[in-house]
Amino acid sequence: MTRPSIAFLGFGAALPERVRTHEDPLFDRIREAARARGVSEASLFYGNREHRCLGPGESLASLTAKAGRAALEDAGVRPEQVDRLYGSVFVSEFISPNELYQVHREVGLGSHALVVPVQTDFANFLMGAVLAWEAMLAGHSERALVAVGAGLTRNMDYSQGHAFGIGDGAGAAVLGPGERLALVDYAADTFSDEYGAMTMRPRPEAGFDQPVYGLEPSRGVEAFLHTGMDGPPRLVERLLRKHGLTGDDITLMSHQATRKLLDHWNEKIRPREYLNTLEDSGNMAMASLPVTLARYHREVRTKYLVLLGLGIGAHQLALLVRV
Question: Which CATH number applies to 184-322?
Fold first, then answer.
């Protein structure tokens, strides 16, 4: 029996209006710490000249809903035709429930639409797409919206190097029956021995009672330099080999923490094209992939597209898409 073809039908993105450049005095603490420590975490995160930041009182859920509405319009799908909403608003207003329920409300989805928050930071978008795809193949869903919003600029320690490129943004995609941008296969790796190497938690030792993201001393940088650098190329190579493909057959879009990772992955995977939004939008964590897709999906010239995500579980996920 031939499986139905499930595809990305449309994309949407939304970015805050406020722009912050890499010359902002906010980053002076990072530069001072780097000078004091010599080679440090600050040397690992670079490559963007500016990014967007949520302003005071600006709602991340509303920004995510804006991206969701744009994706529905791009797909030509009405809100009442959507029966599932996957994704995450991060950092959410409450510990629970996730503000994805507010996104459901603002997009205007019906009460029949199941809301599925996905806490696989920072691969929430890809995991949501895979779950939506599997639900459709099982016959339990017809059309799904995957929407993610990243608002990490409000939850960072700006003395730490990884904070340098963090930007806010939201992206979304509609999935349903289709032929272009059809999902073909995925591969995943889980590295649970790195649990706790990178975390979002209060850091009273650094003066933060609210949760802030951080690389834990020694373990975090080690995970970045080993699993983070070399795990994704191995994962993508495994997925491509399974389908008789090479890097020359694909366009790559990926997680965009820093130019250091992107350059290393480009060298190892050798895709025909590698599209990203790092320079002008920074590291939007889970939102980087859908924002990049919204900007570039009509410009993909290869037969296949690979979407690469990773998160702090630690886990990595690669999705093969037929263009």
Answer: 3.40.47.10
